[in-house]
User: Which sequence fits this backbone?
């Protein structure tokens, strides 16, 4: 048996309505269901009923946000919606961070080249811009292994890996 989201929503609404109608207003489970200030206030209840009836008539038959069983976090009403995995979200966040840093510091090919050149001059090493991007990945991993672990380290590591590729190809 296949059930559509619309049918599941209708069934859920009917079950909630039946349950609410069967529960006495003074039942402890109902505490907080109506704002205490407006509970029993006929003008407020009539106004709310009037607004709801007008809103229902103007939108009748239309799907509205929040009308589904899925959360709106993933904008499931958008055309072509697909659930975003944590890995994909990490990469999306890394892209946003790369774009932000590009605006602040310039392209990674230039920024890491400057940094590697300064390290090379100071310590007699021969790091390239791509090498420096890998050093930054290693630095993030080392931080995660120590006491300074952060939730956004995976975003930074993905960003530095992308910068490494850009430096290798650039």
Assistant:
């Amino acid at each position: 048996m296949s059930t559509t989201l619309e049918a599941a929503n209708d069934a859920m609404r009917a079950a909630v309505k039946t349950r609410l109608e069967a529960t006495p207003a003074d039942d402890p489970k109902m505490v907080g269901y109506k704002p205490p200030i407006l509970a029993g206030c006929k003008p407020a209840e009539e106004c709310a009923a009037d607004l709801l009836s007008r809103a229902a008539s103007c939108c009748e038959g239309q799907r509205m946000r929040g009308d589904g069983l899925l959360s709106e976090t993933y904008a499931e009403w958008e055309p072509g919606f697909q659930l975003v995995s944590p890995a994909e979200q990490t990469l999306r966040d890394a892209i946003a961070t790369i774009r932000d840093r590009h605006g602040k510091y310039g392209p990674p090919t230039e920024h890491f080249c400057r940094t590697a050149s300064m390290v090379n001059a100071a310590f007699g090493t021969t790091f390239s811009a791509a090498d420096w991007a890998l050093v930054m990945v290693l630095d993030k991993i080392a931080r995660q292994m120590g006491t300074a672990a952060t939730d956004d380290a995976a975003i930074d590591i993905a960003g530095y890996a992308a910068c490494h590729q850009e430096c290798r190809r650039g």
Q: What stands out?
A: The chain has a mean pLDDT of 79. Residues 86-105 form the longest helix (20 residues). The CA atoms of residues 138 and 157 lie 9 Å apart.
